[in-house]
Design goal:
With 328 residues, this protein is an all-alpha fold. The protein has helices at residues 9-24, 28-37, 40-57, 93-129, 131-145, 149-175, 179-196, 201-214, 218-225, 230-238, 243-266, 278-286, 294-320.
Amino acid sequence: MTPAPQETAAEEGQRDYSLLQADRGSSLWRDAWLRMGKNKVAIASLVVFTITCLLCFGFAWFCKDPIQQDLTNKFASPSGEHWLGTDAMGRDLFSRILYGGQISILVGLIATFVAVTIGVTYGAISGFYGGRIDAVMMRTVDTLLSIPFLMVVIVLQAVLSEWSGTTSRWIVDTWGWNKEFTNRATNVLPLFFALGLFGWLTLARIVRAQVLSLKEREFVEAATSLGLSRLRVLFRHIIPNTLGPTVVYATLTVPGFIMYEATLSYLGLGVESPNSSWGILIKEGANYLETNPQLLILPGILFSLTLFALNFLGDGLRDALDVRASKD
């Protein structure tokens, strides 16, 4: 009989490396990305939202001035100069839609960032320390949840608007910033924080429930036995393990905040002139629905596509980060 050929050193090393890679496994985020890649609707939504952001924050800088008026060219039809025509003040509709998208998307992202920061910290502290601290903090959340959200946002936004006007004048007088740019920037800041400061309540309850489960795990006991402080255990080991539900909630919250901004702007309580947003464009377009429906339909289409994309993306992330899903 012919003896079986022996493995060379290189082949043996390659086999051992393959076994090591198989034993090492993969992370939750890598598995989530692989599952996400199989969700065609979620990937398509991610592409749509990315293209929208590139148009609003990149291509918009090469478009016409969205506040430049031309009263001799009102309600113009689409042309090489004005791709989507003009509005009732002769302003380029295409550039106004893109610049309006900047405000609407920024409101959603910044308000969500504020809400996530507060909600994760508040909920984690409440769940980790428990006892009377947990009882007082959760009763506070319950009390705030009983107050109509939009009513609180309207009142808070009105209070912060007065502060923004004073702040704008102080910045211009002290630092010499451009008055028009400063007024436009400080005009939208109250809306960012008014939405974010009261949008964290539901997330705080979600994070608290996660922390109540995580703090009984073995890795927390191991970290505590090593002499780490409670705050270090909380922020270094427990909070990172709540990022899955937090990311999912954040992606589903962004379209909600964009919708709130559009509602407030439609009611005349949101973004103020000369700034523009999709809510303001829809409000202005509704006044000319019978004569010039494109003023309502065009911003409405981009607004709806963005909301659909974010909602489908959030659903895809929720399924991808489901730890109970089987690994491929």
